[in-house]
Structure formats: structure tokens, C-alpha cells
Write a structure and sequence with these properties.
Elements lengths: L1 H25 L2 E8 L6 H20 L7 E8 L4 H14 L3 E3 L4 H14 L2 E4 L13 E3 L4 H14 L5 E7 L3 H17 L2 E8 L8 H10 L3 E4 L3 H13 L5 E4 L21 E4 L8 H14 L5 H20 L7 H12 L4 E3 L2 E6 L5 E2 L3 E6 L2 E4 L2
Parallel strand pairs: 1-2, 1-3, 3-4, 4-5, 6-7, 6-8, 8-9, 9-10
Antiparallel strand pairs: 10-14, 11-12, 12-13, 14-15
Helix pairs in contact: 2-10, 3-4, 5-6, 10-11
Length: 381
């Protein structure tokens, strides 16, 4: 009987040692997760985010890792659905995620932020632009906020004298679109720009825009502002062409990805302008190297969402080095260290030089403008 007890104790001790070894090994990596729509109508956004972050992770690992430790990276699909985004977050938590790069879109970012706040996990969204995305102090962003996109759009249209009479078509059911439009309209009024037509649609009425376009045509607008996603923008351009509308079209980062839509006639987008922090044909070495790697890995030119995600990972790297975090830290302690470090770092990224962050999670950088010419995005400046 004593021998059996001794053997049992020995087996238990061996199992404990084995589990302990497993835990130690788990502490030998940083685990970064990402969430976005990898399937469905907005898949061009989510896949760009996951792919752009993956390139950054691969580069960092090849250069020796994060504070000398390798990064494990995993992306989850949320199908542009808030509840599924929360489910994706829970799945990544079960995987062992310590830092979240995502989600990709505003609504999903806001939903998941409720969870990261409760867990005190550090979160940086590459492209969630609604003001509410960063309402908690553990959430930062790389992209411009909706107010910034709206005001910068009005500034650019005014500075370049692009229009005398403007029509705006936006999604009143979406915080991204409605937030940008409201701030665009306010800034346009300050600058003396005439917004002659303001027409809304909702998620339940986002396939037929002929009524909104007809009002723009009847008013004689010379520019139509589209603070919306590329899926709806593609439909609007198609319908505008069939109605003989010759106005300019101007949008924000949500239009990035339109050229990759299936069955979309690229010539309909000729001359479309969009405000964005990333231009893929820029001649600096960082952009050229990133574009080359992205094309080799994924067979297409990266969009702004990919660039934002790339910069997000490198911003995490800079903050992690500043704070000297280690993978054995608790998620909460890691978050507290990163929050402080993020206000002290500055990076030269794909989406801007000298990017730095305020304590409320907002980046400080300058926007750029792109125009679609001959089926590709090129700098408008």
C-alpha cells in the first residue's frame, strides 16, 4: 500500500512538473490576436488588416522578436457582426491572447471594447474610427477618428476648390458614416461650402440609391460626398453612371478596397477621390518594401487598412520596448504598462511620419489624398 502511495505521489509530481514546463513554454511567446470581417461584404477590410499585421509580425520575429521573444499571431473572422466579433474575442482569449490588434470596423470595435475594458486588456484598432471606439483608456487607434475624417475632407475640398455645391449620401444607421457626415457638414458650413443635398440610407435600404442620386442631380451638385463603405459606393457609382450623373465623387478610408470588388467595373471609379493616410505608390523605402512583400504574399496591392494594421503592430512593438514588458506578465499589468508607454513613443510608419498618441488613444498624423486613375490608386497631391 505504501509503495502504491509513493508511486502515486511520484506520478502526480511528474504531471505537475510537466504542466509547469508547459506553462513556462507558453510564457516564452507573446500572443497577439486580430479580429475583422474575413468573409462577407467587408472582407476586403478584414483580410487587409490580418495580412498587414502578419507582415509586421513576420518582420519583427525575423529580426529577433519583441523584447527578444517571438510573437504568435492569430486572426479571427467576425463577418462584420458585433456579436460574432465578441465571440471571436472570446475565442482568442481561450487561445491565450495578450494584446488585441482590432477589430477592424467601428461597430465591432465598440462592442469588443466592452470586453477588453472588463479584462483590462490592451487594444489597438487599426481602423475603428468612431469616437466611441476609444472611450476607454485601454483602447487606442491608428486611423483618424470620424470627426477628423469629416473635418479634413471639408478642408481638402475647400483648399483644392473642388466644388461649389455638394451633395452628401451617408448611412445613418452606421456610426462610422453618420459621424463623419455630421462633422463634414459642420466644417463645410464654417468654410462656406454649400451642402445642398443631404440624403441618408440605412442598412435595410442600401441597394437602391436612385432617389438620393436623383436629388443630387436635380440640385445640380458638382461633388457628391460619400463617407461610406466601398460596397455601397460601388453600387452608387454604377447607378450614377446609368443616370448620367457627371459629378465628382469624394470619400474617406471606407472607399479603400472598392477596386478589389468582384464584378465591379473599375472604369466607373475613374477620378474618384478619397482621403487616406496611405498611398501605395509612394516612393519611400518603407512603402515600397511593404507593397512588394504584400504583393508577393497575397497577390494584390495593399490598401490603407493593411497599412494601418502594419503600423499598429510596430506601435505595439515600440511601446512594448519602452515599457520592457515580458510575456509572463498578467494581461492587466501588460495593459497598464502599454497605456503609459503609448503616450511616450513616436514611430515613422506607413501611414505617417512621427506618429504619436495622446492619452485618449488618438493618433497625431497628417492625411493624404488618393485618386483612382486607370484602375489604380495614385497620389492626388
Amino acid at each position: 500500500m505504501k509503495m502504491k502511495k509513493i508511486m502515486a505521489l511520484a506520478i502526480t509530481a511528474a504531471m505537475t512538473m510537466s504542466l509547469g514546463a508547459a506553462f513556462v513554454q507558453a510564457d516564452d511567446v507573446f500572443k497577439i490576436g486580430s479580429i475583422g470581417p474575413l468573409t462577407g461584404a467587408a472582407a476586403n477590410y478584414g483580410n487587409a488588416v490580418v495580412n498587414g499585421a502578419q507582415i509586421a509580425v513576420d518582420e519583427i520575429n525575423e529580426a529577433g522578436g519583441l523584447n527578444g521573444v517571438q510573437i504568435e499571431y492569430k486572426g479571427e473572422d467576425d463577418e462584420l457582426d458585433n456579436e460574432k466579433s465578441v465571440s471571436a474575442y472570446n475565442a482568442l482569449k481561450d487561445w491565450g491572447m495578450q494584446i488585441l490588434v482590432g477589430p477592424t470596423t467601428s461597430g465591432c470595435t465598440i462592442a469588443v471594447a466592452e470586453k477588453t475594458k472588463a479584462d483590462n486588456m490592451f487594444q489597438i484598432t487599426p481602423s475603428g474610427s468612431s469616437q466611441d471606439c476609444t472611450k476607454y483608456d485601454n483602447v487606442f487607434r491608428v486611423c483618424f477618428s470620424d470627426p477628423a475624417q469629416g473635418t479634413k475632407s471639408a478642408d481638402y475640398i475647400s483648399e483644392k476648390a473642388l466644388a461649389t455645391k455638394i451633395g452628401a449620401i451617408y448611412d445613418s444607421s452606421d456610426p462610422y458614416s453618420a459621424g463623419i457626415e455630421a462633422n463634414f457638414e459642420a466644417r463645410a458650413a464654417e468654410l462656406g461650402l454649400e451642402v445642398a443635398v443631404k440624403e441618408a440610407f440605412t442598412a435595410d435600404s442600401n441597394t437602391d440609391f436612385t432617389a438620393q442620386l436623383q436629388k443630387c442631380k436635380d440640385a445640380g451638385v458638382d461633388l457628391i460626398y460619400l463617407p461610406i463603405y466601398y460596397t455601397q459606393a460601388g453600387t452608387i457609382l454604377t447607378q450614377a453612371y446609368s443616370m448620367g450623373i457627371n459629378a465628382k465623387f469624394f470619400g474617406c478610408d471606407g472607399l479603400d478596397g472598392m477596386l478589389a470588388m468582384d464584378n465591379f467595373q473599375k472604369e466607373l471609379a475613374e477620378g474618384v477621390l478619397l482621403l487616406t493616410p496611405f498611398v501605395a505608390d509612394a516612393e519611400d523605402d518603407l512603402t515600397k518594401n511593404f507593397v512588394a512583400k504584400y504583393q508577393e504574399a497575397y497577390g494584390e496591392i495593399p490598401n490603407q487598412f493593411a497599412a494601418d494594421a502594419y503600423d499598429a503592430v510596430y506601435a505595439v512593438k515600440a511601446a512594448a520596448e519602452k515599457a520592457a514588458i515580458t510575456p509572463d506578465m498578467s494581461i492587466s499589468d501588460m495593459c497598464e504598462a502599454l497605456k503609459t508607454a503609448f503616450t511616450e513613443i513616436q514611430i515613422d510608419g506607413l501611414t505617417g511620419a512621427g506618429i504619436h498618441w495622446t492619452a485618449d488613444g488618438e493618433p497625431d498624423k497628417e492625411p493624404k489624398a488618393m485618386v483612382i486613375e486607370n484602375g489604380v490608386y495614385v497620389s492626388a497631391d
